[in-house]
Amino acid sequence: MAAGDLLLRAEGLTKQYPAVTAVDGLHVEVPKGLVGLVGANGAGKTTLFRMMLGLSRPTAGRLEVCGVDVQADPLGVRQRVGFMPEHDCLPLDQSAADVVATFGEMSGLPPRAARQRASDVLDLVGLDEARFRPIGGFSTGMRQRAKLAQAIVADPEVVLLDEPTSGLDPTGREEMLALVARLGSFGISALLATHLLDDVQQVCDHVVMLDAGRLVVAGATGSLLQGTGTAVVDVGVDGPRLVEALAARGLAATLGPGSTVEVPVADESTLDVVRDVVADLGLPLNRLSSQLTSLDDVFLARAGHGGGAA
Amino acid sequence: MTGAVYDRGYRPYDGPRGGTGASRLALARASIRRALGLRRSWRQKLAPFTLLAIVTIPAVVNVGVKYLTRDTPAQDVEFITYRDYVGVSNALLVFVALTAPDIICPDRRQRVLPLIFARPLTGRDYVLAKVGAMFSILFAFSFLPQVVLFVGQMLVSEDGALTYLRDNAEVLWQVPAAVALLALWYSVIGIAVSSFATRRIVAGATIVGIFLVSSIVATVIEETAAESARRDAGWSTSVEDAPSTSLDLVLPGEAREPARPRFAAGEADPTPAPLLNLLNLPLLLRDVVFLGEIGSGSAMSGLAGGGLMAAGVYAVVVVGALVVLLRRYRAVEP
């Protein structure tokens, strides 16, 4: 893959603090797109962000963001990257429009363009009505949106989102994730650091899992989940007949709670077989859903294998 | 595409982008706006513009008096000199104590620094932008009243504007130079002190405290020296000479009235004690700019190499404060 298509390339990246090794020999290549950076608190996510922004010097190794060597050209990286920190970070006594426009200017936009973009992105994140109010009066959800707005105001190639759903209620969380999911369609890649695998599962097409500063696993979200799920079929009272018919086709189906039938899914063709068998038997197909193994399971399984540091 | 009018989709930005210079300017502009209370509530505008009014009023009054008394012989009316008027800028101390913390402390307290340094800006850019913003405002606020005074005097001058301009041509460089020295002094010290506090009130009080304490210490040393000199000369201590109110310390006598010959030769030997007076040090340099030597209002007047010593202390303090600032923002991590 060409360097420009990569969001992130780390080679032996290490960050050693006096008391702790925050990132430990990280080797990873991450394509552009919506990428989840998953790990428990203290796994090294924020340290990786700092190093990506050139604000923290790696103890060893190399780090490229969007094909730019961070050590060699930190300002070049920051011109391409937007950053949304986890904590509150906006001046409280200024209006959202003002703050976002000012940050746009600081990212290199001419003043007029910065004001226009600020208005556009605040509209996009749903703060069009509130944009002339001081941020001090905003709710947590509104502040998170304003933080996202300042990160994308200069139309970056990549945004680094540090726990964007933290502190949000379920509705706010859904809305924030929907916004993040939309970034992809804007041509903005996102690296979403979170300890909530659900968030990643919902919006990211790629995932990088860290544990204690080490890489657990990296890959496409789909491929990590593939082959590990269960399909749940509800055919009313005819469950036992379906189990027999599926067994004849080589699938080890079992009767589940109620009258459901659970079928282990090897790949996508399994679901086709289930559908065909149900049709052949002339059974009513009340429900066919797949319960994929969650990333939690993948993470726990791999982190458990990966050396026991956790 | 139908409904394009209502489509509020995202538009990528493909217009021009400035380099790091543009980013630095943007930070300085934002700081200036903040200090002047622009795009903030009226309360934030109160302090800066009241101060601008206060420092401009003497110029307006002076020009007005000059106009009204244009038929009176010149020697009967005393006018403020440009040199004296630079001293009025000491009132800027209050402004610095209010404003320098306001453009520094919230960045730390509200944790805005990570956002600023996620932009193409370095710690050095930050220091330059903040000091530059403070300097620009202080320079403008001390220079504008001088312009009012000069243009006003020029217009009411009985010899004609051009003659006045010719006769006073030297202040055209003296005033900006003296004002710039004063503005740099206050902005660097104010920003450096503020960078160590997260709360504005603490920073403001510290700034005022540092200037006042140094002023009091220097004055006490001067007075002690003068008193012992007088005693040696067989004079009794004169209480009138001692600063009577704290206002005397903030606005040294010479700013409000012509130099008192407190330290005239023969009364006391010149002492380098005024070098300790952070409040008045830039005024010593102002004297050097205007008179080529330290004026008779200071206890350093007549001290050999006094001007050089003042310039040396000034340079050491300004450079020292800048070094402290640069180290403070050398590595800023979110």
Blueprint (SSEs and pairs):
The complex is a heterodimer of chains A (310) and B (334).
Chain A: E1 6-16, E2 21-31, E3 34-38, H1 45-52, E4 60-65, E5 68-69, H2 74-80, E6 81-84, H3 96-106, H4 111-124, H5 140-152, E7 158-162, H6 170-185, E8 189-194, H7 197-203, E9 206-211, E10 214-220, H8 221-225, E11 230-234, H9 239-248, E12 254-255, E13 260-264, H10 268-281, E14 287-291, H11 295-305
Helix pairs in contact in A: 3-4, 3-5, 4-5
Chain B: H1 20-36, H2 42-68, H3 82-88, H4 92-109, H5 113-116, H6 123-156, H7 161-167, H8 171-194, H9 200-232, H10 246-250, H11 253-256, H12 281-291, H13 306-328
Instruction: Summarize the helix and strand pattern of chain A as letters.
Output: EEEHEEHEHHHEHEHEEHEHEEHEH
Q: What is the terminal-to-terminal distance of chain A?
A: 32 Å
Q: What's the total helix number of chain A?
A: 11
- The general outline of chain A is globular
- CA-based gyration radius of chain B: 24 Å
The dominant shape of chain B is globular
- Quick check: average pLDDT of chain A? 88
Task: Give the helix proportion of chain B (percent range).
Answer: 55-70%
- Low-confidence regions of chain B: 1-7, 236-266
Find the count of extended strands of chain A (DSSP E, 2+ residues): 14
Name the descriptors:
heterodimer, A: 310 residues, alpha/beta, four-stranded antiparallel beta sheet, 11 helices, 37% helix, disordered C terminus, B: 334 residues, mainly alpha, 13 helices, globular, disordered N terminus
In short:
The complex is a heterodimer of chains A (310) and B (334). With 310 residues, chain A is an alpha/beta fold.
Folded structure, characterized:
The complex is a heterodimer of chains A (about 300) and B (about 325). Chain A has about 300 residues and is an alpha/beta fold. Chain A has eleven helices and 14 strands. Chain A has a six-stranded mixed sheet with strand order 6-7-8-3-9-10, sandwiched between helices. A four-stranded antiparallel sheet of chain A has the order 2-1-4-5, covered by helices on one side. By secondary structure, chain B is mainly alpha-helical. Chain B has helices spanning about 20-35, 40-70, 80-90, 90-110, 115, 125-155, 160-165, 170-195, 200-230, 245-250, 255, 280-290, 305-330. In chain B, helix 4 (about 90-110) packs parallel to helix 8 (about 170-195) and helix 8 packs antiparallel against helix 12. Chain B is globular. Classes of the chains: A alpha/beta (about 300), B mainly alpha (about 325).
